[in-house]
Amino acid sequence: MQAERFPNPARGSTVPRWIQLFFAIDALLVAVYAVNAWLDVPPGKYAQFFDLDEEANLPAWYSSMQLGGAAGLIAFFAWRSGATLRRGARLLWALAALLVLLSLDESAQIHEWIGDRLSRLFADAHPDRFLERTRSWTSLVTLPLVVFLVWLFRGLKDSLSAVPRATWLLAAGFTLLLLSAEGLELLSDLTGLKAHGYTMEVCAEELGEMLAATVLLWGGWVMAETALSPVETPSRSASAQAAPHSSAGGNRPSSRRP
Fold first, then answer.
1. Which residues form the domain of 133?
2. Residue 137, domain member (yes or no)
3. The pLDDT of residue 195
4. In this predicted model, what pLDDT tens digit does every residue of 7-63 receive, in sequence order?
5. Is 241 among the domain residues?
6. 237 found inside a domain
7. If 0-12 CB within 10 Å is exposed, 13-18 middle and 19+ buried, where does residue 32 land?
8. Residue 254 neighbours by CB distance under 10 Å
9. Is 213 inside any structural domain?
10. Going by fewer Cβ within 10 Å, which terminus of the chain is more open, N or C?
11. How far from 45 is each of 52, 54, 61, 125, 207, CA to CA, in Å?
């Protein structure tokens, strides 16, 4: 029996409208925060509810929802393709689990908590060290994540060959997420931005993170859409190609004489 292979539904480079809506929401949330900062809105429930630099509010829940949605879509693809991908399916489940963890981190601030504990652990002994002066201990948490992602995508190279568009979207999403979450935050720590400079850095960082979550959600959708497409087998394709020839041969008049 031939192994089944998921087709890659060719839909051009069009961005789905619902993904376009998410991109618009990304920009809108950043715009609301920027306007509040520009108008110097006093602290309160309204300002905190839209504050990009806080947790347990609308922007954090929104990003958490997107990452959780991407995890669910990738898990669905892994479930549908588990019989054919085998080891690749297990790696896909690991990728989905990572996105669930990142989703929880949006609200629970897990990596910030780890960075804070590392800072407290080494602050007294080495107060002049670079990471302590810049408050960038969270960067140490990111390094294992980068190594894990590289290993994961190398292992998924063959499994994701049927969905190249999703592969590029996932790679772009994780790259943008890491550059925004750690790169811009480290830049802020190094430069010591204040007032409007700090507000601009927060806007850039959080916009990058939300755009990354939207791209990851888009990649998960492409995978789920592929899994829901009709499944083809090599034997079925060969039969479909041979059918017209056999039909034409059957209608050809016989050369034998009665």
1. 19-227
2. yes
3. 66
4. 444 445 689 999 999 999 999 999 999 999 999 888 888 888 999 988 789 999 999
5. no
6. no
7. middle
8. 6
9. yes
10. C
11. 13, 12, 16, 39, 22
